[in-house]
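Feature request disguised as a bug report, sorry. It would help if multi-protein outputs had a clear separator. Right now it looks like this:
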Amino acid sequence: MNLFYINLSVLFVCSIALTGCKDETSSEPDLIEHDKTPYELTINNFPAPNIATDNSLTVQGVKLGRMLFYEKMLSGDGTQACASCHMQEFAFTDTAKFSTGIRGNKGGRQAMSVFNMAWHGNEFFWDGRAHLLRDQSLLPIQDELEMDESLDNVVSKLKQSQLYSDQFTRTFGSDEITSERVSLALEQFMNSITSTNSKYDEFLLDSNVFSESEKRGFKLFTTDYNPFFPDKSGADCEHCHGGSNFENDRYMNNGLDGTGEFQDDGREKATMQAKDKGKFKVTSLRNIELTAPYMHDGRFSSLAEVIEHYNSQIKESPTLDPALDQTREKGLFLSVQDKIDLIAFLKTLTDKDLMTNPEYATPF
């Protein structure tokens, strides 16, 4: 009997071993499939964005775009990615006045923030030379002052990666990698970066969350300029920085330089029209506390300097915005306390989640 049980045990152990070997050798690799699951944007009190119908956001498309945004293979020497000059902890901009490219060259304009791009409706870059966000996404890669790489080389490098082949399949339905698909994925990720959760957004639901200084700053921000009654005059900021995103989808000359002083012609470079000289894209004031230095050339290092520019330093030129031109002679009448309160309000526009949201961080 003992010998019988021993033989039976041996047969049982062998059976388990054979079954295990069979499972291991017959297992199939994971099937990589096209996944069209939509990506849900967090928009809170914002209006619905105008996402391009030919590039709707999907979970896999946003994931691919995020991978590419942090991918250093997109640069000529493999040392820089889009995220090198658009850092999450600074609301996706650079703290340098001018970003440094892979060859040690400096750019000519301050890096713009990358958030709430889904609500921009008037081209991209400071001068609007890129019509769509997908167009913008490829230009820094090719710029010799920035990432200094050809699109052909980018595609060639990505094709050598199984990780990317699989992710392009999940996103587009095949592992074909093209510069157009790269741009579409980058557009999806940048459109997914939203900033909608600040103290100001809480204030819209409960006005008691603001301090007295923040309330006064908000009133100054939204009150019109009145040259005839200085005591009732406001800072008149809302005309240019209004709406949910605190911008106006326009290009404007805000009086940084006077006639004959322009070092950068701004939008005129893109349109070739003299009426656009010195005009630049009006940027969002959300997260403004984090995005110094300010203006297209980073000339101001603090919010106090920015406010003083509008208060008393606007310069005259033919394309100066008319609303600013009327304040130029007398200024905005802002007191020391007014300036303190304005800055207090501007700091309420800082998002509580943007800088630490793991959905926007490097996936590597």
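(second protein starts here, but nothing in the output says so)
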Amino acid sequence: MPPSTLGALRREVEAGRVPRRTVHQELRENLIRKLRAGEPVFPGIIGYDDTVVPQVVNAILSQHNFILLGLRGQAKTRLLRGLADLLDEALPVVPGCEINDDPLAPLCAACRTRVVEEGDAMPVAWRPRAARYVEKLATPDVTIADILGDIDPVKAARGGLHLSDELTMHYGLLPRANRGVFAINELPDLAGKIQVGLFNILQEGDVQIKGYPVRLPLDVVMAFSANPEDYTARGKIITPLKDRIGSEIRTHYPLTRAHALAITTQEAWVEHRAAGPAPAPPVVVPPYVREVVEEVAFQARQDAKIDKRSGVSQRLPITALENVVSNAERRALLAREDVAVPRITDVHAAMPSITGKLELEYEGELKGATVVAGDLIRAAVGNVFTGYQDAGDLRPVVEWFDLGGTLQLDDQTPAGEVVAETRGIGGLHEAARAIARTAGGDGSVPALAAAIDFVLEALYAQRKISRSEEGRYQATETPRRPSRPEPMADPTSGGGPGRKKLYN
């Protein structure tokens, strides 16, 4: 049992069973213990093991306050919140103290008085690690009183105290984070005069409230996050404050598709959909559908029509995959199918979860978000399909369309109908079965239908066939020369059967 009185706490400290140290030392020592034990320092953070995490570890070992600079959706807030796991499970504090005073060395006048009056019999409270992490989202309307504190006239009136008395202080978020971690998200949005108010705590380790000679040598670790482009956009981090921050660490988006897939799998609400009082059909997501969803984000991050300064958040593939699965669920429920297997056409149906996360440049604005997103999906499908070379020879499929064949499918076409409608297209089912085997499919009709859809969308992405706005697959407007002679077209027929306006 932890000591419950000041006297018992003092004896435990003297015996070395309860450590006394600063928060910086506490984080450092607990981090060293994790590293020696081979435990993950920031569990749930994927793709930063060789880049960002070592820099954060170095900052903590150096006892630095630090800032994370990165575009939106780069796990900056999750990293900051992970600092709480490096704190002790609980910390002894003076009960009821607003600034979590150390019972053995209290800062505020009220706690000092209480220690003198109650002595070793004074009760001791234990503050859990989760309560020692304080986070504030910086906004332009934040005041110095919100961060540091202010004079409380009500306290002065009730206690008959002078306004300059320390007991009249109302403490802000920073003093209340004493003996813990104080994190500020989007630091550039904090007004310049508020940033100035952070100077003392970063350099001298204390705060002064409202100009009165009240000095509180706080023990707190400061951590910040910011978008690097915000230096010249909504606001900026003032130079003296940047100079006082020990380490500046740059975050990034996933560097590989494997990392991106792992993040989306971890964050997306996909795996537990079949549970509940009204269970939905089980969901089986083919690997190539997951890869296409991730590749959309990778394509967007390098597309000239999308604003690089804003970035493309990892939330795009997370929410897109959730929408893709929902569309497959809807189709399975309407068609009375036993399993929901998403297709590439479901990615097109997930457009509402994609367009809202793209900040477009002028050229992109001219084309429109929906057209830009469609182009991204098309490029993603083509890129992913190159990894499925076991599909075999697809020339017979292309020739079937070049000879005038058309196929009307959409995202709500039942799996059985997709398989039946495509049975006469030479080579298509063989290619789809090969892809389904490569993707670990179970050979079911929905899995085969998804693979057929993947092949057709890949041929469309490679511009070997075209697709109309109504979902009709057909030959391209300028047909490739087939391996056998093509019948002469009637010059009055408009160029061939079933020609519609194309997406692109």
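Even a blank line would do. Unrelated, but nice: The radius of gyration is 31 Å.
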